Amino acid sequence: GDSVITVQLTEEDKVEDDVVFYLIFTGSTVQHCTSTRKVNPGSLETISPGHDCCETVKVALCASREGHPVLVVAEETFQFVQDEAYDAAQFLATCAGNQQALNFTRFLDRSRPPAADVDFLDEKVALAFRHLKLPAEWNVLGADQSLAENIPRETLMHFAVRLGLLRLTWFLLQQPGGRGALRIHNNEGATPVSLALERGYQKLHQLLTEEEVREPDSWSTLSHTVHSGDYSVKHHRGLDVYMLTAEA
Q1: Is residue 113 domain-shared with residue 59, that is, in the same domain?
Q2: What's the domain range around 136?
Q3: What are the E-state strand segments in the chain?
Q4: What are the recorded GO MF terms, alphabetically (predicted)?
Q5: What is the 8-class DSSP label of residue 137?
Q6: Residues 101 and 56 both lie in one domain
Q7: How many domains does the chain have?
Q8: Are 2 and 51 in contact (CB under 8 A)?
């Protein structure tokens, strides 16, 4: 999800300004409808939706004009795939509270990947997390939230802070258990806040200690949910397009 899709119109499809184009993605269980932005008379832009499974879906380019029936201009197929970032997000989501799995992730810290790789990892894994269908009862601290705060243990928040993953940390803070995780000490006696301070991650430390903190600037290029219920409506600020997702 959240990749830019460009649609090239043929000469006969280049029409008046009062015609509105949109794309409909029809999957096995859900359907997405996205508005488009006209770049020039011959091309449109929109944002790919985050889909609920890996599959090939049918995409229809539709044209709408007031007082006229909706016209299907063209049809094509579009394939949703599961990449390494999605696998990583799924793994991290399932190991919330699993001490053996969380201790295993600490080997990444010893390898200390270059800053550019960390930034890429942060962006992709956080984006994948945003598109995961997390269970309603999911919690950053795992299934057993009854554990007292004074029981030392690793948390997903420790993992994100240790690697300096700003976007993932911000995402986790918005989830159930996110704020509570800031008070948990691990076996070395470190909280996520003290880890950020110890490693010199100033932006991260600010994120964890300020009550009213804005989301990372780079996320202005992502879609934001403006309504959710039986269906979801997202708005992409950068292109100013909307996406409606509903059961097919």
Answers
A1: no
A2: 84-215
A3: 4-8, 20-26, 30-35, 37-40, 43-47, 56-64, 71-79, 223-228, 232-236, 241-247
A4: MAP-kinase scaffold activity
A5: T
A6: no
A7: 2
A8: no
